[in-house]
Structure to design on (782 residues):
């Protein structure tokens, strides 16, 4: 494992910490910040390499002409990253961010698109930054409808923690007073453009103020925060921001944790398992595999926070305490690995808008608009449960627009030198219900040389990753509720656009494999009863209360709101609780 | 990750899916083995031809054209490294076709022709490509074909407007805008933003 700049060189000799945080993304960064600020000595373990704020943002000062292939990827990259190439994130400027899929394979029993970034900061560097609260309606829905199990918390339990994280993260947004999408601690919002304002007004009028379009709430700051400069409207966030204009581990939680002098970081180290002590029924620490020297090390602590990302935290649990629980720590409920969710998208509608040819825009706004959920709210009843929101933008077409009709030469050049029509488009994000049979598991099957599943070890061997570790298999799919909802997502948007005067509306639905929404969640759900859940109301593993899982794994339902803000709030809440319990010597 | 970037990138330019970019989007299929067997690649000796074709597509007007932006380099990089073997073959055979069919039609080589002759000839190729793209709309995805001129047109437009000349002289480019305004007055003739 590499010593990073932050690395306390005593780590290899001094193997004992107050807390260990596994993972350095959105959740891991928050766990490290909160625990160190409350006085704990913390070891953060990242499986990928170090990646330093600004210094390692290699493309950040490039102009478009500095990229040899523009945004296109090479044939070699297409071979190395086939999953990433299913979606829109296969872009030359960020290809180095994605996990090498040959080194870290997984099995798709049914299509499952898993977007991974194994390096310091994880997906906090790449994320879409849309930040929305879940509402009381979301926390109550499972119990009211008899779906899955009840959340062990309500909105009031998490609301102060939303406040807490929003102030630090810097969420820009407008207060809208909607019960299904609670307002928060916002910095001033980014503006809608002239067309979006007009469309918002028309939608509001047409739907009797029951549907809303406002600027997306986003973790890009419009006012400076300590150590961070406000957004400069380059809209190249995912390359890393030299100003710290958006929330990432590197820009935000890591500097705060470092400032305490209580954080030690180890990179290039995969946590293989939580070390479980049968006597005390608690974790003693973690065992890690050094990906540089292939040696195994142990680190010890009073508490362990698993923030390794939804599927990977569960993978760690599945590999832990297997001498006591055959299917891993937390499996006594029979729910570990089950109830995987996502938000389903890859569908929407777009069209053109007339009458604004005298207007254009300046600058590149790092967000678009949001249309919050309206289905199954109030009198708007549907023949399926839950609902969906939309994200989109209006803009004038640029030089990449379709010029199929134009010939070559001066006319073509002059045509593309001017902006095109105003267009508007949006993508739906639909809630996915928890379903026991949507699951992940360790792939324990045997494969022959041509990749066919065979019966036993005499005929083939199990798949492993580059380091010989077991791999996950995903067996999950959209079901009836989501498929019914998808029809409405498309039709409702078309209807709204047409009601707002959008012309030439075109719809699309290209299908959705779970995972593609990059909002994978569930697999170690919270709950009120150890018989039906993996974690309790404070994200503690029922079977090892000093192990907290605070990434998306604990989600009990998915809502349709982008989930990262909720992971942050749950993490801060759990960290606060862990420190309280340590003080009371309960852990 | 900005999902809206996708919307910008997918409807590229020529009434056809962007060659090289769409291969795995829907199917997630395994890429063809990229061992280059029997297919040559674009080489610097093709650059004059590529820049001439590019210049016919995006000519010099009151700002420099594709040749000044050396789109040949970009075309070559993309075709050699980003295209599938099948698409690269179509592209390279297309370059040969341009030269041979020009020769048999005009009784001189493409390189010796006047710019007007080149443009007139390439206009025909553009029309051929449009017919193919139009016919593709009626066909199942796997039965669609790509005309090499669609590739040339896409690569020229992409290479030119991504170039420093295209982005800063023909279009407008501001690296660090510093603010957003959603209602800037616009009058016909004002240049578009490069990004």
């Amino acid at each position: 494992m590499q010593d990073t700049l932050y690395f306390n060189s005593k780590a290899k000799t001094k193997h004992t910490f107050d807390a260990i945080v596994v993972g350095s993304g959105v959740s891991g960064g928050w766990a490290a910040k909160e625990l160190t600020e409350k006085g704990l000595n913390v070891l953060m373990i990242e499986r990928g390499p170090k990646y330093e704020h600004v210094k390692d943002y290699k493309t950040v000062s490039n102009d478009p002409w500095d990229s040899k292939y523009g945004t296109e990827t090479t044939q070699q990259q297409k071979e190395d990253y086939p999953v990433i190439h299913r979606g829109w994130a296969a872009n030359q400027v960020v290809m180095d961010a994605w996990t090498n899929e040959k080194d870290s394979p997984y099995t798709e029993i049914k299509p499952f698109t898993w977007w991974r970034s194994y390096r310091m900061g994880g997906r906090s560097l790449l994320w879409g930054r849309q930040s929305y609260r879940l509402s009381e309606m979301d926390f109550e829905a499972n119990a009211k409808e008899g779906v899955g199990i009840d959340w062990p918390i309500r909105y009031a339990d998490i609301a102060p923690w939303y406040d807490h994280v929003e102030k630090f993260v810097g969420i820009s947004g407008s207060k809208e007073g909607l019960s299904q999408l609670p307002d928060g601690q916002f910095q001033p919002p980014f503006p809608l453009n002239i067309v979006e304002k007009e469309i918002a007004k028309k939608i509001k009028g047409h739907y009797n103020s029951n549907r809303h379009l406002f600027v997306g709430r986003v973790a890009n700051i419009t006012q400076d925060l300590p150590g961070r400069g406000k957004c400069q409207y380059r809209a190249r966030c995912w390359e890393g921001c030299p100003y710290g204009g958006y929330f990432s581990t590197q820009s935000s939680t890591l500097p705060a944790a470092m400032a305490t002098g209580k954080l030690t970081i180890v990179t290039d180290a995969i946590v293989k398992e939580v070390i479980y002590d049968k006597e005390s029924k608690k974790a003693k620490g973690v065992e890690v595999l050094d990906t540089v020297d292939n040696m195994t090390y142990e680190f010890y602590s009073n508490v362990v926070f698993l923030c390794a990302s939804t599927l990977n935290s569960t993978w760690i649990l599945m590999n832990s305490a297997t001498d006591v629980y055959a299917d891993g720590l937390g499996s006594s409920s029979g729910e570990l690995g089950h109830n995987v969710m996502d938000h389903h998208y890859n569908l929407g509608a777009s069209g053109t808008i007339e009458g604004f040819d005298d207007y254009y825009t300046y600058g590149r706004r790092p967000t678009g608009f949001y249309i919050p959920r309206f289905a199954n709210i109030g009198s708007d009843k549907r023949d399926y449960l839950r609902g969906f929101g939309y994200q989109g933008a209006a803009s004038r077409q640029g030089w990449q627009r379709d010029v199929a009709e134009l010939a070559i030469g001066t006319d073509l050049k002059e045509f593309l030198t001017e902006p095109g029509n105003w267009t508007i488009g949006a993508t739906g994000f639909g809630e996915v219900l928890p379903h026991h049979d949507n699951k992940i598991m360790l792939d324990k099957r045997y494969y022959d040389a041509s990749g066919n599943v065979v019966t036993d070890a005499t005929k083939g061997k199990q798949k492993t990753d580059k380091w010989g570790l077991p791999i996950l298999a995903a067996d999950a799919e959209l079901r009836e509720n989501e498929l019914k909802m998808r029809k409405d997502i498309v039709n409702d948007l078309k209807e709204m656009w047409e009601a707002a005067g959008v012309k030439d509306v075109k719809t699309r639905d290209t299908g959705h494999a779970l995972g593609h929404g990059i909002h994978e969640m569930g697999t170690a759900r919270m709950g009120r009863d150890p018989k039906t859940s993996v974690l309790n109301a404070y994200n503690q593993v029922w079977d090892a209360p000093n192990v907290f899982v605070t990434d998306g794994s604990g989600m009990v339902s998915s809502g349709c709101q982008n989930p990262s803000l909720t992971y942050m709030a749950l993490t801060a809440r759990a960290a606060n609780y862990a420190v309280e319990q340590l003080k009371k010597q309960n852990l | 990750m900005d999902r809206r970037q996708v919307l910008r990138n997918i409807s590229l330019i020529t009434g056809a899916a962007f060659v090289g970019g769409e291969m795995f989007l829907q199917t997630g299929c395994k890429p063809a083995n990229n061992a280059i067997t029997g297919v040559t690649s674009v080489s610097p000796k093709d650059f004059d031809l590529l820049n001439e074709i590019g210049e016919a597509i995006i000519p010099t007007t009151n700002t420099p054209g594709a040749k000044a932006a050396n789109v040949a380099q970009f075309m070559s990089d993309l075709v050699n490294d980003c295209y599938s073997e099948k698409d690269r073959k179509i592209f390279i055979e297309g370059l040969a076709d341009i030269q041979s069919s020009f020769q048999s039609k005009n009784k001189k080589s493409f390189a010796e022709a006047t710019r007007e002759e080149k443009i007139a000839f390439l206009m025909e190729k553009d029309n051929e490509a449009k017919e193919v793209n139009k016919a593709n709309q009626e066909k199942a995805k796997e039965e669609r074909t790509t005309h090499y001129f669609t590739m040339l047109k896409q690569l020229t437009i992409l290479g030119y407007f991504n170039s420093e000349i295209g982005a800063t002289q023909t279009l407008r480019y501001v690296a660090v805008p510093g603010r957003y305004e959603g209602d800037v007055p616009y009058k016909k003739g004002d240049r578009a933003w490069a990004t």
In short: Chain A touches chain B through 83 residues (CB under 8 Å). Residues 3-11 of chain A have pLDDT under 50 and may be disordered.
